[in-house]
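Example record used in the benchmark description.
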Amino acid sequence: MGPTTLNQNLSEELKTKDWETEANVLEALESLDYPSDHLAIFDNTDLISQKIQSFQPDIIFNLADQFKNNRAFDQNIVSFLELQDVPFTGCGSTGLTLCKHKGISKKILGYHRIHVPDFTVIPRGKRIARPNRLAFPIFIKPLKEEASYGIAQASFVENDEQFKQRVAFIHEKFDQDVIAEEYIEGRELYVGILGNHRLQVLPIRELTFKEVPPDEPKFATYKAKWDEEYRKRWGIQNEFARELENGLVQRIESICKKIYRLLAIDGYARLDLRLTPQNEVVFIEANPNPILAREEDFAESAKRADIPYHKLIDKIINLGKQTARD
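Model output (structure tokens):
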């Protein structure tokens, strides 16, 4: 999308798949009888200030996940909102910054004895070398991307030649630093959390791979998340996690609450974990402000917890109003 104007008509965009979250949230606001106005921001923060002055919102529902086509700038938009003295939904700039940098989040959690994969960060322009302690197989991804952007089958590497090729590819194609981490065998779990101080952990979701042979690595590539044909071919489904004993669920919930607090998250988030065959819980990454479309994992988990969609949107608004930004 190109640069936008203050009162741009977005009715055509809101009918498309790419704008599903925005359309769903606007429908929910209407059903809750909240008067609202919307603004698409592309590359101009002046528009935000103008819209705040003309509309004078009680709260901003923040769905901005990039700026100037750069996903690393979502935290900067929130920093800008923090300067406006208007409450907003979702995570503050500190939490977004800590979570976006996959190396920093893992260092913080590792320090607090939460199990994270062994990893190394390889900045652009530095010699590409694998530390001896980092054993194969290794998983390679951009340091600051989300939604599995930049993750493909080639991200799973088993020798130094593949390692160098994939790191160089991400440096060049995505113009990003790289995080290379040990591949953790196990189940891929997604845990939604709502709250600021008192946290509610939602029912656990799992990405399952029904048609992938047992000895093949299983991980969420970009295609595994977003390409319907590919998902059908490999039997990839997002569903509620089965066969987790009560004690294990409680342990996962407790670890997730600790992660949420240590990474300074507020509002709502989805945490991605691996559960090893020995039932060890390993942190992979945190997604503050995850996709809020009605049929995505977060809203599905809320619905299972008896929070229908419009009520979920209302809760997120109320959490945004409560947050003391300091």
